[in-house]
């Protein structure tokens, strides 16, 4: 009886070892071994770069920002790209969100547990100034106007004007002159009805929850009172 139990235990041990080795092999195929995030002071370009996985997969690229070194991080960018892409220009994202502490997170879409995170970079006023004076070849993205307002140029060269624009997973509203709006604004939606929306200081529309000044908005960002969307 002891021999049978011992043999069964040995088989179980060997099978568990094989399973573990297989699982490690599977994970290693999607492992990202380094992520780097830097700002080229010579031209102001902000870059996220990572090594490719052995197995083919697309990537989710996130940029996290906190105001202080130990502060709460929020995602200021989320993009997806194909397996052949291992470098991303994030200059416009830094230019829009300003100073702070940033980290990049790269996640293989086929193996979300194999994500990798860069070291934290402190973007101070000096680096932010370099970023906002970026002189690279990119001719689209966020544009800082002379009066301190922001505009957005799409990759096809057209400017966002009098519309909602989805940029890096967040919604922004632009007026008829192409200026990004902040604060509360009544906006005429496609159905011809005006609804009120709140845009944060960096321009993104609050979707759901309570605004900084204490008002509630629904999942689409519209102002509500007792659960009822306010219109005019």
Structure report:
This protein is an alpha+beta fold and 232 residues long. Helix content is 19%, strand content 36%. It is built from 3 helices and 18 strands. The chain has helices at 2-29, 91-97, 125-132, and strands at 35-40, 45-50, 59-66, 74-81, 87-89, 100-108, 116-117, 121-123, 141-144, 150-153, 163-167, 170-174, 183-188, 194-199, 209-210, 216-217, 223-225, 228-229. Strands 3, 4, 6, 7 and 8 form a 5-stranded antiparallel sheet that branches. Strand 13 (183-188) and strand 14 form a beta hairpin. The termini are far apart. Mean pLDDT is 86; it is low at 1-5, 9-14 and 18-26.
Report a brief summary of the structure:
This protein has 232 residues and is α+β, with helices and mostly antiparallel strands. It is 19% helix and 36% strand.
Report low-confidence residues grouped into runs of 5 or more: 1-5, 9-14, 18-26
- Overall mean pLDDT stands at 86
The H/E string reads HEEEEEHEEEHEEEEEEEEEE
User: Helix content range of the residues, please?
Assistant: 10-25%
The count of strands amounts to 18
What does the oligomeric state look like here? Answer: single chain
Beta content comes to: 35-45%
Global Rg: 23 Å
Number of helices: 3
Distance between the termini: 83 Å
């Amino acid at each position: 009886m002891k021999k049978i139990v011992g043999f069964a235990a040995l088989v179980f041990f060997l099978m568990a070892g094989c399973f573990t080795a297989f699982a490690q092999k599977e994970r290693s195929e999607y492992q990202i071994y380094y992520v780097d995030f830097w700002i080229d002071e010579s031209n102001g370009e902000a870059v996220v770069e990572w090594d490719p996985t052995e197995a083919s997969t697309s990537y989710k690229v996130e940029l996290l920002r906190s105001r202080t070194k130990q502060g709460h991080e929020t995602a200021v960018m989320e993009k997806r790209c194909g397996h052949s892409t291992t470098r991303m220009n994030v200059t416009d994202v830094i230019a829009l969100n300003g100073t702070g502490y940033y980290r990049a997170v790269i996640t293989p879409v086929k193996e979300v547990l194999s994500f990798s995170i860069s070291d934290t970079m402190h973007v101070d006023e000096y680096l932010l100034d370099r970023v906002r004076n970026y002189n690279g070849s990119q001719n689209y993205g966020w544009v800082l106007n002379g009066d301190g307002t922001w505009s957005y140029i799409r990759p096809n060269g057209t400017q966002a004007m009098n519309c909602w624009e989805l940029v890096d997973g967040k919604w922004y509203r632009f007026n008829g002159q192409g200026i990004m709006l902040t604060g509360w604004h009544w906006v005429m939606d496609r159905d011809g009805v005006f609804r009120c929306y709140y845009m944060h200081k960096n321009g993104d529309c609050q979707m759901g929850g309570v605004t900084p000044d204490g008002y509630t908005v629904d999942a689409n960002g519209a102002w509500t009172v007792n659960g009822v969307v306010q219109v005019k």
